[in-house]
Amino acid sequence: MNSTTTQGHFQSQQASDVAVNIPTTVKPRIVIVGGGFGGIKLVRRLRKLEAHVVLIDKNNYHTFQPLLYQVATAALEPDSIAYPFREIFKDQKNFLFRMGEVQEILPAQNKIKTSIGEVDYDYLVLAAGSRTNYFGMKDFQQYAMPMKSIPEATQLRNLLLENMEKALLMDSIEERQRLMNVVIIGGGPTGVEMAGALGELQAHILPHDYPELNFKMMQIHVVDMDERLLRAMSAESSQSAAEFLKRFDINLWLKTKVVSYDGKTLVLSNGKQILTDTVIWAAGVAGGIMPGIKPQSIVPDGRIKVDAYHQVEGYNNIYALGDMACMVTDKTPHGHPMLASVAIQQARSLAKNFVRILAGKPLRLFVYKDPGVMTTVGRNHAVVDLKFMKFQGVLAWMVWLFVHLMALVGFRNKLVVFINWAWNYFSYDRGLRLIIKPSVR
Amino acid sequence: MNSTTTQGHFQSQQASDVAVNIPTTVKPRIVIVGGGFGGIKLVRRLRKLEAHVVLIDKNNYHTFQPLLYQVATAALEPDSIAYPFREIFKDQKNFLFRMGEVQEILPAQNKIKTSIGEVDYDYLVLAAGSRTNYFGMKDFQQYAMPMKSIPEATQLRNLLLENMEKALLMDSIEERQRLMNVVIIGGGPTGVEMAGALGELQAHILPHDYPELNFKMMQIHVVDMDERLLRAMSAESSQSAAEFLKRFDINLWLKTKVVSYDGKTLVLSNGKQILTDTVIWAAGVAGGIMPGIKPQSIVPDGRIKVDAYHQVEGYNNIYALGDMACMVTDKTPHGHPMLASVAIQQARSLAKNFVRILAGKPLRLFVYKDPGVMTTVGRNHAVVDLKFMKFQGVLAWMVWLFVHLMALVGFRNKLVVFINWAWNYFSYDRGLRLIIKPSVR
Fold first, then answer.
1. Which member of A20, A169, A436 has the closest CB to residue B21?
2. Do B434 and A20 touch (CB under 8 A)?
3. Separation of alpha carbons B148 and A29, rounded Å
4. CA–CA separation, A14 and A18 (whole Å)
5. What is the pLDDT of residues A388-411, one digit of tens each?
6. Residue B287: beta bridge partners?
7. B301, B331, B359 - which closes a domain
8. Domains in chain A: how many in total?
């Protein structure tokens, strides 16, 4: 390695990080943990900074999370919504990627411990997103399917299809139904999108694949504690989404909690019991765990408390953004919503502040500009809430398609997703009903 | 189930196969094990037969094996070369699919034992293809990577890319080289295609991803016992392939055997030791194991002996075709080559014979018509051997592309593969350098 070992910008770089082979230079090193929407936007925005930008992620690719539900429902290839970091930043000179999992932060030593060794930092940015939150319900943690990563979405696709194959083999109607029924816990965007996609599978696709099964018997349930779906959106949007889902005979259990699930029977707070082999957990997320950050700086749901400059409370060179951060200000006593748009805006703001930090200038406060929220409910139907305008239906759906297509990283991915969408739309078909299991070796 | 339990066509259907819920009818039941090239062709050709066609496969999809090496080298999505059986045959009325693994054949009872229960048959067709043959070399079985299925190809992609990530972390040149080097055992079509694709990755793609690594250090080796590559093809083709691979500085070890491999060092029969973490086994296949068939009917490499009517020796209602069958005739004392074209032609022949069997007519002999063989070696270069003509280079490459694109099942797959090829060709890029590991749950 042509490493120039010398003093770091404002603090010692003596500590060895041989294991990760990052050359030490005179430039300050900004280490970013997590390449989600916030992480990759921040890396990109720092491209002209006289700094050394190091991204650490446990995967070698960025996941386009908003379309995970389409992978799980056989509409898109898993690879179409993933993009390698090395490809995204191949022309960025001040950038370095390392694949590894962060195990602990050692703020006193300005370093992090990772699965591949220790990494020194001058500035640390925590952007590792959120994790599935089961609210301490062990049975759901054990039996319900989360959907926060590509392997999880693929696993869910496998399960849904395998259960249909198994249902064929059952003699008892009850057993068949248990294998065909799906319960989605959580009526937020993920739950609603998943429900709509499953409704379509049930109505148009699975009956052709499994003429031996009676899909009128298959039940799809959505359970939510709130009195309406999509509680982060307008009442009109909630209403429209609920109406659309009911067209597919999807059962909505609002103001209802889940009580227990033993892998076969799900019990609701109203006493209703649902036989099901497939429970999808879309009920909540919590901040990713980051050992080493002092407990006082962590809010009850696991997010890390930051000030309006993205600085983690109690540290002067650690920052957090996106789902991982809880920016407590007068206007946002509970932080911002855990949305891609927040992470992206915070990344932009933090990138600008890094310029100011290195120049010794005063920092600028972050102000969130709500660009609106949209959720797709199914074929030809989405709901869009903008600041001065709300609309639902076909136009909203076209806007949703366009926005998501454009947001995908890379032209190849855009093209392949577009073709799959067009194909699925016109053929009423999903070519990806594959049960591809990992090799047993 | 609306099953009409009655006597079978020519033998009893009394035995219960409740577990797999296949309705018994008056029509004879033809059970086909394996949905490779032969299996799916046979199902399709039997579509007008007054029979009940049951396909059993351990996967719910057909794998387009000739393009597995492109999945392993990040050129194609795994999903693009897989196609669900239920989709292929959705309009075929006399068809039924069951996902399960065959465990044993019980010829005396005319049934097979599978992972999902027992299945009765009137006629049984064994078309389960081949398995990787390590020729009893335990260390290679343990450490080398096979490439016969989509999960195996994906696993190989993961390994190749992960080893580059690991190489970055190493200080010693020796360790780096070990992680970057690749040895391919076997210089047949799979070995040659893999070598060419890896040569391209080394020359055009990996250096952009890993500017920190010196790819001049990376060695690609192909080892084969024979005195030339592609021994099933013409001398011109062998020569042309070898020349092309040498342009990438790929090391060809001909007339050479592998002796041992401990996961770190591979030893060749000429004494040469190669440090490598990645050994790809493309050296041989053997007939899939099918317990229950009498040992006398199995040839040493595991294939099942059939006569010129595809009938397994010693049974009057069991047939075998494709890689699984060894048709011993005067002209083919060791059977036919294990090629897709053989499997497909045998399926056509057997389909015609089934019409004759059910009509009580005499059967027709199978005669293989060699359509020629082709192998792609790399960008702009393939080798084609036809009966009256041999050609190599760009034109051969275009023929290869066209033939393989057309052979893919389904329009969506054709389109997505075409786009990926065009993309890779013009951009010198592979968007699919993803390490997607199965979910740990």
1. A169
2. no
3. 45
4. 11
5. 899 999 999 999 999 999 888 888
6. B130
7. B359
8. 2
Task: Dig out the tokens for A299 from the structure.
Answer: 């809010």
Place of tokens 């990760």: A20
Q: Is the pTM of this model over 0.95?
A: no
- Interchain CB distance below 8 Å, A60 and B433: yes
Tens digit of each residue's pLDDT (9 = 90 or more) over A334-392: 999 999 999 999 999 999 999 999 999 999 999 999 999 999 998 899 999 998 899 99
In angstroms, rounded to a whole number, what is the distance separating the alpha carbons of residues B61 and B89?
11
What is the CATH classification number for the domain harbouring A160? Answer: 3.50.50.100
Question: Percent of chain B beyond pLDDT 90?
Answer: 78
Q: Which of A18, A154, A419 sits opposite B416 (nearest CB)?
A: A419
Q: Which residues contact A104 (CB under 8 A, 6 or more apart)?
A: A112, A113, A291, A292
**Could you give the CA distance from residue B30 to residue B347 in angstroms, rounded to a whole number?**
13
Residues 347-376 of B with CB under 8 A from A: none
Domain that holds residue A347: 18-58+100-132+286-359
Which tokens go with B400?
Answer: 């290869």
Distance of CA A51 to the CA centre of its chain: 29
Residue A98's closest CA among A13, A15, A23, A12?
A23
**How high is the ipTM of this complex?**
0.87
| Residues B116 and B188 occupy one common structural domain | no
Residues B346 and B392 in one domain: no
Q: How does the average pLDDT of chain A come out, rounded?
A: 90
CB contact under 8 A, B434 and A60: yes
Domain endpoint, select from A264, A283, A302: A283
* Secondary structure of residue A30 in the 3-state scheme: strand
